[in-house]
Each structure stands twice: as C-alpha cells, then as structure tokens.
Amino acid sequence: MAALSQAPSPTSPSPTGTNARKSALLASYGLPSQPGMVRAVAAAAAASSMNDNSSLPHRKGSISTTRSSHRYSQLYSMAAEQDVEVEDDLARAQKRLRELKAKISSQSKKNFVLERDVRYLDSRIALLIQNRMAIAEAKVAEHLEEADQSEGIFPDDRKLQSYGNLFFLLQTEPRHIATLCRLVSMSEIDTLLQTVMFTLYGNQYESREEHLLLTMFQSVLSAQFETATEFGSLLRANTPVSRMMTTYTRRGPGQSYLKTVLSEKINSLIEHKDLNLEVNPLKVYEQMINQIEEGAGGALPPHLPRSVGPEIAAANPDVQAIIQPRLGMLMEIADSFLTTIMESLDQVPYGIRWICKQIRSLTKRKYPDATDFSICSLIGGFFFLRFINPAIVTPQAYMLIDGIPSKHPRRTLTLIAKMLQNLANKPSYAKETYMMSLNPFVESNKARINKFLNDLCEVGDFYESLEMDQYMALSKKDINLHITLNELFNTHQLLDQHRDMLAPQDKHHLRICLSELGTPPVKVSRKENKTIVLPLFSRWETPIQDLTSSFLQETNITQADIMYMETKAILVQLIRSIPGLADKRPLDLLKIAETAATTKDAILVRKGIKVKEMLSELVAMNVVDDGFAFMTEEVTEELRHLGNLREKVQEEMVSLEAVYKTIGDHNNYLRSQLDSYKAYLQNVRMQSGGGHNGGNNSGVGVVTVGGKEVAKKQKNTVLGPFKFTHHQLEKDGVIAESNVPENRRSNIYFNITSPIPGTFIIALHYKGRDKAILEMDLKLDDLLEKQQDKVQLLDLEYVHFNVDKILALLTKTFIKR
C-alpha cells in the first residue's frame, strides 16, 4: 500500500489518447502510472472481470464474453437506467430522485458551514461575553454576516480555466488531497473538509465522486498505518485524519442511516424523563444525600457525611441497593440498542462498510499476528466511536430528536454509548472503575459484536465500476463544481503552502497547475464570497467524443457486437415509451418495432424503422436467429431489472425525502441559534450605553449586527502606545519568565498599542534604538481561549507573559480607561 501515497513519475512524457486515459484511471486510484507498478487488488478485479462468464459456452445471439464487451454492455445498461429520451414512471421518478439528492448534497454543505459558525461562536463569543469584552463586537458581527449566495462570475477567464484544470486534477487523482489532509493543522482541517466533502466530492449519491472520495480515504488510511508506531494509538487520536473520518459519516447516506436505525429507539427512551439509571456510586451517593436533606429539613444522620470519596460511596449498602437494579435495566436497554444496530447491517452505507474493510485489511498487513479481537477493536473504533456513539450521546445534533433530552435520559444515553464503546473496543476502566459493574454486558456480547464487525467488512470493491465512471466522465462536457471563491482561494493557498511535499518535481502536473496560477489570492470578505460555477477539464487527456468509436479503436469489440447492443437498447426504449407493450408476454420484437414505426410520434417512427432494419442485418450476419430468442430473453431480463429498479427508486425517494426534511429542519435550528447570538450581542451593546461611545475611548460608534454597517469607526481609532518597563511588568507578575540578562533589563521597555478593537500589538524596545527588537500581534479572543484552556504562559521569545496577568493589564489599559 505504500504506492498509494506516491506520485506518478514526473520524468515520463505526458501521455495522450488511450495512454492518457489509462494513466488517469491509475491515478484516480492513487497509483503511480509507471509500467510494472500495479496494485494487486485492482489487477485482481480486472482479472475477475476478464474471466467473467468465461466458462459459459458462446451462444448464437449473445455478445462476446470479453472484458471490453462486458464494459460496453454496462454502458448500455447505465444508459437504459437513465434514458433522457424516455418519459415513463421510472424516468420521472429517477429525475425527481436526482433532484432530491442534489438538494440534500447542497443542504448538507450549508449545514456544515453553519455548524462551523456555531462552534466558532461557542468558543469565541461566549468568552468575550462572559469576560465583558464587548469591544470585539464588530469583529464578531463581521464573521456572522451572511454571504451573498447569488451566482458569481470569476473575474479572469484564464485563471478560471487554470482553476478548472487544477480541480479536475484534484478530483480525479485523490492522492493529492489525501496527502494534503495529513499535512494541514487541526485549525485548517475544517475549512479543507468543507471543500473536499461537500464541494469537490459533494454529490454524495453519485457513484463516481463517492468512489473517488473512498480511494482518497484508502490512501490516507494506508499512510496512517505505515507511520503508526503503536497499535493502540491507531485511529483513536484527535487528528485531521480522524476529523475527516467523522465528517464523512455526517454526509447524507450516514445521516439517513442514523435516522432510520436509531431515531425510534432514542425517542422512546427520552420519553421516560424521570427514569434515573445513574450507576456512578459517587453521583448516586450525592443524589441520595440531597434527597435526605430535602426530606429531613437539612439534617443528615451522623453515619452519612455530606462529602465522601468514591470508595466510601461504593461501599455504602444503600448506594449498592440503588445501583443493583439499575445495572440490569441498563444492560437490557444497551442490548436492545445493540440488537437494532446489528440487524441493520444491510442498511449501513456502502462507503462506511468499505472503510471498515480497509481498516481490517491494513491491520492484517501491518500486524499479521494481531488477534481477531484486536482487529475488530480498530473497526469498532471507527464504526462506534466516530459514527454511532456521537449520535447516541447528542441525538439533537444529529437531527434524531426534537429539542434536547432532559437530564436523566441524557445520562442514560451517555452510559449506553460507553457500554457499546467498551464492547467494540478494549475496555479501559482507569478513570471510571464503576463501569466494571457492566462487564457482564461486554463478556456476553463479545463474540456477537466481533461477528458483526467482520460482517461489516464483507462488501465488494468498486474499482471496475470506478474505471467505467471515469471513462464515462471523459465523454462528458459539463462536469462542473459549484464552489465559493474562498473555497477556491483557501485550497489554492494550502496546496501552494505544501507544494514541495505534494509535487516536488517541476514536471509534476500539480506543480505545473500551481505555477500557472501564481500567488494564491487573498480571501474575500464573507459578504463577497460568491458561489461560481467552475467547469472542470483536463489539459493532459483527450476528451472522448464518441464512445462507440472509442471502443472500436481500443478494444476487440466487433461492429456486430455494437449493433446487437444498440438494437437491444432501442427496443427497451420503445417498450418503455409505448404504453401496454411491457405487459405483453412473450415479447415479439418485430411486432414492437412495427408498432413503433406506425405511431404518430415521429421520433418513435424513426426508431421503429431503424430497429427493423437492424434486426434484419443481425439475422443476415448470423448474429441472431430468425426468432430472436436470445435477444428476447435479454430484453425481458432488462425490463425486469428496470421494473425492480423503479420500486427501489420509489423506496429510496421516500427515505431521502425524510432525510431532506430533517436536514432542512436542522438548518432552520442552526439559523435560529445564530440569530439568537446576534440578538444577544445587540442587547449587550444597548445595555453598555450604545457600544463604545462615551466613557469608552475605543473609537467604535454605532454597531448594527447583521446589517450593512457593522461598526462605524471614529477618527481616533488607534489607542496607545502605552509604555511599560521590564521591571514594572516583572513586579506585577505579567512577566513570568525572562531570558533578558539581568544587567540589560533596565534598558528594556514595552509599547502596547490597540490599532483596532480587540487587537493589540506588543513591541519590545531597547533604550537608544529607534526600531523595536520584536513585535507580537495579539487577538483578544485568542488570549481568552488560552485562558479557558488553562494555558499559563505566552511566549514572546525574550520573555514569557502570564496569560491571566496580561489579560488583566489589557483590560485595565484599553477597556476600562
């Protein structure tokens, strides 16, 4: 699997025509295109296809049994399923289904962006408000301002084409994104994932994009396993890769599965608002003491002190009596959840099962001596830790329930998730020894869960169908991305930042694209972040103008084979287009052609005449017999397949309509949260006397949150500089550590300026020098976040500031003057 992360040889000449397509197909799997370096699994898939039906005797009227003819036959089957010239119930249902899937994909992206905004508000705005730092109001309002979602026009046609080339390369050769996901920081990953999951591969129900995305996961996972030093840390740490895997499960198919499988179980549980199943002895003891105090007017018996340790609480007989029946009930509920999940095996989205399969395969390869239990613990780490359990713990965030569960059901759901995780993973009771009481659930279900996790991995590969999809993509002229300008610029910036790792050689296609684009543009404001339509194309591949001609040139399919399949495809079209024909058995192909040729529809007449002529030619070439027995059988089978397909389409549409409604409701919920924040900010401003006028000299006037004018600045915006000596800051505890020699500290001083509200520049000066030795740009919300995360020191190279003390100094100097 090491080959997955390698790039194609930069020194080989640029392929054209057939070779280009073959190189592109190899590249789409993340493989090098040099001769002799092929992936065993892809070769096996190809070999399997080439041998398909090879043991069957060739029958008159059947097509050649080569891999090429099999692929060409697939094209016609795909065309029959989505035939734009047919207007029957299936075609109409499929059109509605495609529209619904596009809406879900689009809405999922909007929700992802809104959720990120809410996380931003939770971590930043709450800090500003609780610390009474309304000075950053303007910055917050700007972050919340709505983007203009109208279609935009990229200003430069040449760059538009270059970006189209770059993003086609990124989409069809997923190894580049796979490498980039491993290189970016945690602070950058969400923005990149937005582009990757919801734009680059945003059509969540389209097989080509889904399969390309999965090949990217294969490359990422392969590299993760190759660089792993400890088995126990695999896939468990909070890294960009783990964040990527979690985000993947939040796409439409995963959301649909969670809604279908877990929603009813969780809703029935949270109805019992007063059902208390707490089993932590310390918490049970505290609850017991509170009840006694309420009933006895505050007096406690001498043998029941107010505060005790975990051991004393666990040894209390009354606590044990309370916990014992709860353990049985908890295990019963957890068992019902587990049974529901296990019975849903066939409903688990293909992509999630395929990732489980890769985890098992890579684990066996990296650790050949690993036990089945150890391997299943890694699979469970993804399936339960990243997918199932977050939805159980916070069902409201996954749109499985309305509102937020009350206290007791919320705790019960958390305990169930812990039990499932301990079952799927190696149990760890280092911090929660009370969970050992639930070990019987783990022991009794260990074999059961291992079988389920192994069964999850039993899915076929998609390499051949991806090859077909990629081949089809080369014949399309309308592959587009709906992408925002900032997604474009941010991806460009990240690629440029890591270009030496991604494309070290000058002749590498990715490096050529980046060199042509030049310096990444600066991101635009949220208001100007328009969505554009980016046409995708490749300058290194020859588009396929005609699939039939292409197959004749590149394969050993005969003209007779092509005529046979075209005839069959037209007959299926005619039967679908003329009411009543599909119900008549046995089918009479000549009569069907004659019926079409005598209708009042000019298109059907032309097709009827054409297919009659083609049937005669096939008989003359001895490809079919006079009775068309075998072709009739194949047409009948195709119609049966399409009939079954119609039922599946209808079922899928009902399911996805529920998903779309749920996603839409969640979007409304997120928007209401943002509106609440805006209203709260405006209320804070009004209560503080109209922003920062009057006593506060910050230079910010009227603030209109959510309006066009966010903050009206006065002329004298810059505050400072205010001078502080090294001795003064050291005495006040602001300087916690100093690397400045003792004999020079008297010559050191600091100038602190606030050029805009919420931003401070600290400059370190040495007496007698005009310029500062160093300057640091500080954001107020960054400092508050460090304070909340209990980061004690701020490194200024020569000195270390105490975070709490520097915050107090800034507050005193700039906010409260």
UniProtKB/TrEMBL annotation:
<dbReference type="GO" id="GO:0005096">
    <property type="term" value="F:GTPase activator activity"/>
</dbReference>
<dbReference type="Pfam" id="PF03836">
    <property type="entry name" value="RasGAP_C"/>
</dbReference>
<dbReference type="Pfam" id="PF00616">
    <property type="entry name" value="RasGAP"/>
</dbReference>
<feature type="domain" description="Ras-GAP">
    <location>
        <begin position="208"/>
        <end position="425"/>
    </location>
</feature>
<protein>
    <submittedName>
        <fullName>Glyceraldehyde-3-phosphate dehydrogenase 1</fullName>
    </submittedName>
</protein>
<dbReference type="GO" id="GO:0046580">
    <property type="term" value="P:negative regulation of Ras protein signal transduction"/>
</dbReference>
<dbReference type="InterPro" id="IPR008936">
    <property type="entry name" value="Rho_GTPase_activation_prot"/>
</dbReference>
<feature type="region of interest" description="Disordered">
    <location>
        <begin position="1"/>
        <end position="26"/>
    </location>
</feature>
<dbReference type="InterPro" id="IPR023152">
    <property type="entry name" value="RasGAP_CS"/>
</dbReference>
<feature type="compositionally biased region" description="Low complexity">
    <location>
        <begin position="1"/>
        <end position="20"/>
    </location>
</feature>
<keyword id="KW-0175">Coiled coil</keyword>
<dbReference type="InterPro" id="IPR000593">
    <property type="entry name" value="RasGAP_C"/>
</dbReference>
<feature type="region of interest" description="Disordered">
    <location>
        <begin position="49"/>
        <end position="69"/>
    </location>
</feature>
<dbReference type="InterPro" id="IPR001936">
    <property type="entry name" value="RasGAP_dom"/>
</dbReference>
<feature type="coiled-coil region">
    <location>
        <begin position="83"/>
        <end position="110"/>
    </location>
</feature>
<dbReference type="GO" id="GO:0005938">
    <property type="term" value="C:cell cortex"/>
</dbReference>
